């Protein structure tokens, strides 16, 4: 019997669905939009070419069409999702590229446009820890007082040697400083990590998860490294400089990571599914629900759950 307290659907980890339903009392889903931003790691401010794994759409491959205005993007995706959930509320998800990397007035106009739409109860803003200018931070703090705000920060790894390989453009210390800035405004932080990065072994990936466990942040997104066509990572794959993770190794690793994360940390993601016509490896990741079900099965087999081995 599963007695994990942050579950209403027999999951053994603290799902985002559980958190949203218990916070807002109804179905809530994120609507991914592309607000037309760029990134300091692309335009030359800190680097060129972006992170080596990043797609041409700035990791916003399932976001709206950037050729459409924000309201049309939002409504198009909302209508698709309403076919599955007929009654819901929404979080506007600024997903593609770096969504605090623009003058404050530009950010305000985009954020407020989405917040003004019917049944939007919050925003989730994906960004980098080196893109939190003082005026932007002040505005985010004010926004946090009047809506449900999540800021998603890309960490990927705590290992600076790996960050250099993937052309991340900032070090671990910069990430920690970004976390403290957001905490000073009581903003909910969701940390992104990636399993399967070049040259990282099991212990290194576990060290990243352990570090996040001790950050006292709202949530985490655990990603699998996807190797996408026409990226620098695709070139590394061709040269055998990166080895895609095997499904069994990924499932075991994720379960081990869940076991050391605090139970109140919300799990926003455990895997991903790249676009079939753009994905080079690992192809097993396209069957997202098989991966998620296998994680559930492994936790059950172990009689385990999120936080089983968490030590403060």
* Main beta sheet: 7 strands, parallel
What are the segments in which pLDDT stays under 50 over at least 5 consecutive residues?
Answer: none
- Give, in order, the helices and strands: HEHEHEHEHHEHEEHHEEH
Give Rg in angstroms. 19 Å
What's the arrangement of strands in the largest beta sheet? 1-2-3-4-5-6-8
Could you say which structural class the secondary elements and strand pairing correspond to?
A: alpha/beta
Number-wise, the strands total 9
SS summary, helix count: 10
Describe the structure using short key phrases.
alpha/beta, two-stranded antiparallel sheet, 10 helices, 17% strand
Structural commentary:
- By secondary structure, the chain is of the alpha/beta class.
- It contains ten helices and nine strands.
- The strands form two sheets. It has a seven-stranded parallel β-sheet, sandwiched between helices. A two-stranded antiparallel sheet has the order 7-9.
- Strand 5 (188-195), helix 7 (202-213) and strand 6 (219-224) form a beta-alpha-beta unit.
- The protein is globular.
- The two termini are 26 Å apart.
Can you summarize this structure?
36% of the residues lie in helices and 17% in strands. The mean pLDDT is 94.
SSE arrangement:
Blueprint: H1 16-24, E1 28-33, H2 70-82, E2 89-94, H3 104-115, E3 120-127, H4 134-146, E4 148-156, H5 160-165, H6 172-183, E5 188-195, H7 202-213, E6 219-224, E7 227-228, H8 232-238, H9 247-259, E8 266-269, E9 279-281, H10 288-302
Parallel strand pairs: 1-2, 2-3, 3-4, 4-5, 5-6, 6-8
Antiparallel strand pairs: 7-9
Helix pairs in contact: 9-10
């Amino acid at each position: 019997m599963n007695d994990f307290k942050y579950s209403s659907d027999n999951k053994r980890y603290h799902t985002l669905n559980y958190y949203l339903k218990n916070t807002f009392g109804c179905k809530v889903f994120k609507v991914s939009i592309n607000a037309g931003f760029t990134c300091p790691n692309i335009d030359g401010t800190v680097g060129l070419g972006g992170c080596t794994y990043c797609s041409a759409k700035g990791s916003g491959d399932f976001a709206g069409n950037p050729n459409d205005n924000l309201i049309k993007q939002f409504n198009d995706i909302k209508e698709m999702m309403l076919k599955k959930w007929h009654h819901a509320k929404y979080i506007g998800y600024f997903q593609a590229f770096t969504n605090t990397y623009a003058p404050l007035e530009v950010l305000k106009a985009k954020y407020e446009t989405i917040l003004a739409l019917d049944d939007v109860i919050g925003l989730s803003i994906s960004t980098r820890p080196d893109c939190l200018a003082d005026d932007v931070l002040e505005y985010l703090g004010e926004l946090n007082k009047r809506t449900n705000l999540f800021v998603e920060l890309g960490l990927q790894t705590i290992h600076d040697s790996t960050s250099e390989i993937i052309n991340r453009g900032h070090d671990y210390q910069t990430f920690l400083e970004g976390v403290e800035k957001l905490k000073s405004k009581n903003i909910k932080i969701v940390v992104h990590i990636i399993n399967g990065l070049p040259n990282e072994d099991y212990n290194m990936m576990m060290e990243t998860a352990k570090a996040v466990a001790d950050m006292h942040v709202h949530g985490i997104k655990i990603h699998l490294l996807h190797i996408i066509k026409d990226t620098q990572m695709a070139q590394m794959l061709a040269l055998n400089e990166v080895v895609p993770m095997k499904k069994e190794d990924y499932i075991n690793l994720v379960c081990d990571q869940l076991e050391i994360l605090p139970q109140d940390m919300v799990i926003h993601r455990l895997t991903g599914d790249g676009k079939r016509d753009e994905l080079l490896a690992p192809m097993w990741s396209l069957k997202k629900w098989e991966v998620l079900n296998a994680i559930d099965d492994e936790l059950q087999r172990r009689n385990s759950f999120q936080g089983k081995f968490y030590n403060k």
